[in-house]
Write a structure and sequence with these properties.
It is a single chain. This protein has about 325 residues and is mainly alpha-helical. It has one domain (about 1-325): ABC transporter involved in vitamin B12 uptake, BtuC (Orthogonal Bundle), CATH 1.10.3470. It contains 14 helices and two strands, in the order H-H-H-H-H-H-E-E-H-H-H-H-H-H-H-H. Helix 3 (about 65-80) packs parallel to helix 5 and helix 11 (about 240-255) packs across helix 12. The radius of gyration is 20 Å and the shape is globular. The mean pLDDT is about 85.
């Protein structure tokens, strides 16, 4: 039974990877490719935030800050010619890792509501700083003139180039996080998520493991932010503010907060539903405003929490389990 299930999972992932690989050859639409590459970029963000919230049970809201810092540091280094684009991405990840470690060491002593407030304050401080340091960041107008991303002499100019790059990063992060949860660190995360006092009694160094997962997810957010800035070739303080935080929480909740797969599914669903709203609801509603998105997704979250508390991935697994029980023998 276990080998059959493993075979089905491997076959499903193989089909998924083949679909991603050959999608641009069957659907020759820059619009679809651009949305799918954004699904991958935000998929990295939602996977890392799902790992932090759902698996580790750490209610940290600072994820947009690491995303923005990865974008700004990589952009500033590249614009000023201090390093190559790929070098700037790596330096940005190292800077975010160091800063998240310095901030996380004292902040992670807090729990629950207090941790959420402290990390939300980080978003506000970072956004104000990015807006005020106009000589360095471009202020509210944003930082322009970001050069093309080059890796090994290859220049990333087209959406198709960033499509494969962003999905390579997303699949790599997904594979890493999935294997991480089967490692010693993953078992420690599950233990203190379920019961911190019991884990501490068994000798689990909760503070160390929390800091490690906090820094790891911050680095993943930084990498996605760096790819994001090189794709758009500009970055503004509004790119990593409160709206991004709300969008990430929607992805994790709708997809399924208990599963890494659910976070990736949530990224796909939220971004494509947003495109659907902008494309079709504008024909129905005479005045199309930003509040329409908030109303639609607010109602969707309420429905998911009431009828599908484990998210879409939980509902899918429930349907598949029912199908196996009913038709498995035949």
């Amino acid at each position: 039974m276990t080998s059959n299930r493993s075979f089905r999972l491997n076959l499903s992932w193989l089909l998924f990877l083949w679909a991603l690989l050959f999608l641009p050859f069957f659907i020759r639409s820059n619009y679809v490719i651009s949305v799918m590459l954004m699904v991958a970029i935000f998929g990295v963000l939602s996977i890392s935030m799902g790992l932090l919230l759902g698996q580790a049970g750490m209610f940290s809201l600072a994820h947009p800050t690491w995303f923005g810092m990865g974008a700004y540091i990589a952009a500033i280094l590249s614009v000023r010619g201090l390093t190559s684009p790929i070098g700037s991405i790596l330096i940005a990840a190292l800077c975010v890792a160091l800063l998240s470690w310095l901030i996380g060491a004292p902040v992670l002593r807090l729990r629950g509501f207090y941790l959420a407030n402290a990390t939300f304050a980080i978003i506000i401080i970072a956004q104000i700083a990015a807006a005020q340091l106009s000589k360095l960041t471009g202020g509210h107008e944003g930082l322009l003139g970001i050069p093309y991303l080059t890796i090994g002499g290859f220049v990333f100019k087209k959406d198709l180039h960033f499509y494969y790059l962003s999905w390579a990063l997303c699949i790599g992060c997904f594979w890493f996080c999935s294997n991480l949860m089967d490692s010693r660190l993953g078992r420690a995360i599950r233990s203190f998520h379920d019961n911190e006092p019991a884990s501490s009694t068994l000798g689990v160094n909760i503070a160390r493991y929390k800091l490690q997962i906090f820094v790891l997810t911050a680095v993943m957010a930084s990498l996605s932010g760096s790819i994001f800035c090189f794709y758009l070739r500009f970055v503004t303080p509004e790119s990593f503010g409160f709206p991004l935080l709300v969008e990430l929480i929607m992805m994790v909740i709708i997809g399924g907060i208990e599963s890494i797969r659910g976070a990736l599914l949530g990224s796909f669903v939220v971004l494509w539903l947003t495109e659907f709203i902008h494309a079709y609801l504008g024909k129905i509603l005479p005045v199309m405003t930003g509040e329409v998105d908030a109303i639609f997704f607010g109602l969707l979250i309420i429905v998911v929490l009431i009828f599908m508390p484990r998210g879409l991935i939980g509902w899918i697994e429930l349907v598949l389990n029912f199908r196996r029980k009913r038709y498995g023998k035949s």
